[in-house]
Amino acid sequence: MQRTSAEGPDYFHKVVDCQWACPAHTPVPEYIRLIAEGRYTDAYMVNWKSNVFPGILGRTCDRPCEPACRRGRVEEEPVAICRLKRVAADNKEDITGRLPVPVAVDSGKRVALVGAGPASLTVARDLAVLGYQLTLFDGEARSGGMIRSQIPRFRLPEEVIDEEVGYITGLGMELRLGERIDSLKALLAEGYDAIFVGSGAPRGRDLDIPGRQEAAANIHIGIDWLSSVSFGHIEKIGRRVIVLGGGNTAMDCCRTSRRLGGEDVKVIVRSGFEEMKASPWEKEDAIHEDIPILNYLVPKAFTHENGRLTGVLFEKVRPEYDERGRRKLVPSGEPDEHYECDDVLVAVGQENAFPWIERDIGLEFNEWDMPKVDETTFQSTLPNVFFGGDAAFGPKNIIWAVAHGHEAAISIDKLCQGEDIGERPAPQTSLVSQKMGIHEWSYDNAPANDARYRVPLREKSEALRNVKLEVELGFDRELAYSEARRCLNCDVQTVFTESACIECDACVDICPTDCITFTDNGEEEDLRGRLKAPALNLEQALYVSSDLPTGRVMVKDEDVCLHCGLCAERCPTGAWDMQKFLLEMTHAGGCR
């Protein structure tokens, strides 16, 4: 193998697995260390720069960072990265003086933002400070999009939304709320230099099965029903409720139903429990609130009597796998099952709806009736129209919408400045030694062995009485410190200097995970099998030195390294050093 090149941003970035997995590339270990130091406001601002909504995401993020967490490789549970983000939000001081200020000089460029959800708000946050004239349109009377309309208040309090959305709208822009865009052609005619569409995936999928029309009064589309609850239009539901679907929307529907009078609430899913799209913690929360989840049942018909819903008839199915391991559901041969209910909430998926975009304006759609959007620039086939969030590639989580917004803002800024939008700005990186003495480091390199701490919950009997009462109480400062200490500081890298190495193998002897090996070089597949501990994770690169005086090379398996620093402490020549790698994404305007 060739010597590992760690000169560019990607090698060490990928070693910081949590940050690599985060769509917005939030510097996770950096803000966790700040929390451990009690510097909550600084931790909040690190988050605010990258993911824009720390308090919101600290309660609702889909947590792609946590499955990637290195702590999860050495014990069962990863660090509670998401809930620590909330700690920063809950304990920060007033940040008003630390928010950016719009430039005094008007750029003369006008940008329209369709939809006031997380993608559009991110674009607005990045462009407002560059002097752009921004106009934010939304059909609802208050901004926030799906953050406000679809996430129940017992998960995300209104005041958190108001605060973090307010930080953005307060940067200076024209808010045209309660004004729905009915024609993209008409909007284009208003002469905006760029238009960003962040209108989400506003239409819930329906079920066209017998009885749907006859019992329509008590069959509700899940996301529409959640919106009606959020805006106070619905305050109760029947005693017996069936929720159809296995995603996070279904979990929100069933838990909301429990708070609005549903005593017998069931979630019924066509797939197996493990295959459900809902996050594991969302399923756990539903089960904790005494909501059973029934699997491998496919709805066949809504039963009704005298125009009123009486229940749902289901066919029992089982999984069957072909020779390639692909699964399909086939009838089990067991009798159909009927479940009585008073109301049904259909949460079987969401889809985009673009009836307001004319098909004769040069904007191309694909075979799924989605706009053709470049996955890097977020530009459509109309050069000055961009898409992001759920409107671009279908339903995902808020953090993905934020990532889309950052990239679209770069594209819009470059377009308006006459630059090539295909040339993306490189992230800013630094690599700085953490050495303070022979055996001292400027970071805590002795992480706790504690198991993951559980976030305190409100008493169930109290929580189920009020649809607006937040269930999770969050970590207090003491628990937050304990959880923060579980972080392995993966951004503090083990950096090897061949010229200083005397091949004494002291680092090999002291390494607690056997991740360092001095051996003859070879092809990667061969080399991975000859290490002191075989390197089995092919997704994580090996750290390989150039040839040493004996002809051997140093090979480190980054996959199992704990970044404990023992190799650097033990090395008699300083060939190993612990250096903090910090990567910050460059946003709009930062490339000039």
TrEMBL record:
<keyword id="KW-0408">Iron</keyword>
<protein>
    <submittedName>
        <fullName>NADPH-dependent glutamate synthase beta subunit-like oxidoreductase</fullName>
    </submittedName>
</protein>
<feature type="domain" description="4Fe-4S ferredoxin-type">
    <location>
        <begin position="492"/>
        <end position="521"/>
    </location>
</feature>
<dbReference type="InterPro" id="IPR009051">
    <property type="entry name" value="Helical_ferredxn"/>
</dbReference>
<dbReference type="InterPro" id="IPR023753">
    <property type="entry name" value="FAD/NAD-binding_dom"/>
</dbReference>
<dbReference type="InterPro" id="IPR028261">
    <property type="entry name" value="DPD_II"/>
</dbReference>
<dbReference type="InterPro" id="IPR017896">
    <property type="entry name" value="4Fe4S_Fe-S-bd"/>
</dbReference>
<keyword id="KW-0479">Metal-binding</keyword>
<dbReference type="InterPro" id="IPR017900">
    <property type="entry name" value="4Fe4S_Fe_S_CS"/>
</dbReference>
<dbReference type="Pfam" id="PF12838">
    <property type="entry name" value="Fer4_7"/>
</dbReference>
<dbReference type="Pfam" id="PF07992">
    <property type="entry name" value="Pyr_redox_2"/>
</dbReference>
<keyword id="KW-0411">Iron-sulfur</keyword>
<dbReference type="InterPro" id="IPR036188">
    <property type="entry name" value="FAD/NAD-bd_sf"/>
</dbReference>
<feature type="domain" description="4Fe-4S ferredoxin-type">
    <location>
        <begin position="551"/>
        <end position="581"/>
    </location>
</feature>
<dbReference type="Pfam" id="PF14691">
    <property type="entry name" value="Fer4_20"/>
</dbReference>
